[in-house]
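Hi F.,

I've been meaning to write this up properly since the lab meeting, where we talked about keeping a consistent format for the predictions we share between groups. The idea is simple: the sequence comes first, exactly as it goes in, then the structure tokens exactly as they come out, then a line or two of notes. No screenshots and no reformatting. I'm using this chain as the first example so we have something concrete to point to.
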Amino acid sequence: MWRFILIAFALAFAVPFLPGLIQPYLDAQKAEQMEEGEAAEAARGSGRTFKIPLGPHGQYLTEGRLNGRTIEMLVDTGASKVAVPENVARKIGIFPKPADYTVPINTANGVTTGARATIRNMKLGSIRLRNIDAIIMKDGQLGITLLGMSALNKLDRFDFSNDTLVLVQ
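Output, unedited:
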């Protein structure tokens, strides 16, 4: 009898924590389902495009989805990789350790170090990219995520036309 009471008490204690424990599994399942649908769409050859208008300060700013999270990004064709601030990396499920910050990075403010990472999924409008090389920068070194060449080179093409950046997949 005590065994049943103890099990019931343990279950009553654990129930409030179950949603937090189950959510990562559900998110992973949802991402897999989206990837399967994206793969089928890519097989049909839909010729997707995404247009980014020139912003008021002469920059191309856009929102994209990185690993399922909406993130504001600045297009930077001078950046060899997608560069992500550490706080944004955490939001998209990337958690580098302090020892991971070994990659030398040349910035406008001098040389610093970053951590290598891979962004599993990136969505820019109807364009979908997978396994994008990225660099994670410590907080305070980068104010916004940079959409660099490691993502842009995965496109069929991109070009600038009439103050608009056109991405084509």
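Notes:
The beta strands are 49-53, 61-66, 69-75, 82-85, 101-107, 110-124, 127-137, 145-147, 157-161, 164-168.
Residues 58 and 163 are 9 Å apart (CA to CA).

If this format works for you, I'll send the rest the same way.

G.
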